[in-house]
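Reminder to self: tokens first, then the designed residues, so the page reads top to bottom the way the pipeline ran.
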């Protein structure tokens, strides 16, 4: 650590907490709240970068994947979502199993993907056999492509359609070929926030329980936080601590992804509740805080280029992120906000990583390096 960095940390309003982290101590809820309220994101970034560097040096990873949004039909009507369409809407769609598999096979043949991220709306007409057939056929046709699919809230929706338990749904989907769960559906793990922005979606404890069930049967997952929804500092801090507490029990989270709400074309914006996204500086602050809070618990931290852009994702690598996330071809959820193009090829990611002096390692679904660029 340079002399300048040491001075910045010493002058920080959270210098005592940063010192604890460097000595490997776990943080409390109050520590986490103080980090979020800190007016010195630069000192947070110094520590975030030190912690990342200890683990990975100048290596940044990415995964070659596609996002496959199999349906936009949804009955939870979240106020932060511009993607969904109600049942019967003329703009609603659901891909057939054949179309789902064709997209994966084509992406594997054209782009050499090693992962498909499959997510969609909460469609009440889709029974579990739809997902089982899709997963089994994908595995038959593309055994080298991992299925990172279905949020906890989608698992909950399938269990309601089937009138069965979420544990049974997870077991059947794992047998069909599901490799891991994305972290979507968490938003902010506080029911006061959820009742305001997604009142029909699963509650905080339900999200945590489904993740716990998945981890217990060997399904790894990501964890996420969508901030900038009007939550307060304590609610944001409690979200981080709930993730940390579950990770201490199950060790099932492979990565954490903080990302900001993009309010364009959403009900939250239409109602004048959230007019703008949180911005780049808030992203860097949340990246650094996430690295600090999850130090020794969750190794991988994604840079969230999708909602903040490639330039901010590059900076995020110097604030604690070690993973650029994935290539995206055909993504439709964030695209529905009209915020920016969400197409990004592996060549562009590799270039972005190298531009800031990092080495680009292509990884698989489980964060194992499969190619050095």
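Designed residues (373 positions):
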């Amino acid at each position: 650590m340079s002399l300048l960095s040491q001075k910045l940390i010493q002058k920080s309003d959270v210098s005592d907490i940063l010192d604890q982290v460097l000595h490997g101590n776990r943080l409390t809820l109050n520590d986490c709240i103080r980090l979020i309220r800190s007016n010195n994101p630069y000192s947070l970034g110094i520590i975030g970068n030190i912690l990342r560097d200890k683990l990975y040096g100048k290596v940044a990873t990415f995964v070659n994947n596609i996002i496959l949004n199999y349906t936009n039909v949804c009955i939870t009507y979240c106020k932060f979502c511009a993607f969904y369409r109600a049942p019967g809407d003329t703009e609603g769609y659901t891909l057939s199993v054949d179309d789902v598999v064709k997209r994966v096979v084509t992406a594997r043949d054209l782009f050499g993907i090693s992962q498909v991220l499959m997510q969609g709306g909460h469609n009440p007409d889709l029974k579990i056999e739809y997902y089982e057939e899709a997963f089994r056929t994908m595995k038959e046709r593309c055994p080298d492509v991992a299925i990172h699919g279905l949020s906890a809230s989608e698992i909950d929706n399938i269990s309601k359609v089937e009138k069965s338990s979420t544990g049974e749904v997870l077991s059947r989907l794992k047998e069909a070929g599901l490799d891991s769960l994305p972290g979507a559906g968490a938003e902010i793990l506080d029911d006061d926030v959820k009742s305001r922005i997604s009142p029909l979606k699963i509650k905080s404890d339900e999200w945590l329980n489904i993740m716990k069930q998945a981890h217990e049967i060997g399904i790894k997952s990501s964890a996420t936080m969508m901030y900038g929804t009007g939550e307060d500092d304590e609610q944001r801090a409690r979200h981080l601590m709930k993730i940390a507490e579950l990770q201490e029990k199950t060790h099932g989270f492979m990565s954490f992804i903080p990302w900001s709400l993009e309010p364009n074309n959403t009900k939250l914006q239409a109602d004048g509740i959230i007019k703008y996204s949180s911005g780049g500086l808030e992203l860097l602050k949340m990246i650094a805080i996430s690295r600090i809070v999850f130090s020794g618990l969750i190794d991988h931290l994604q840079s969230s280029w999708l909602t903040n852009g490639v330039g901010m994702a590059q900076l995020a690598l110097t604030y604690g992120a070690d993973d650029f996330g994935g290539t995206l071809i055909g993504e439709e959820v964030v695209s529905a906000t009209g915020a920016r193009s969400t197409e990004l090829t592996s060549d562009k990611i590799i270039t972005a990583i190298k531009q800031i002096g990092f080495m680009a390692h292509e990884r698989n679904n489980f964060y194992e390096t499969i190619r050095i660029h």
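The radius of gyration is 20 Å.
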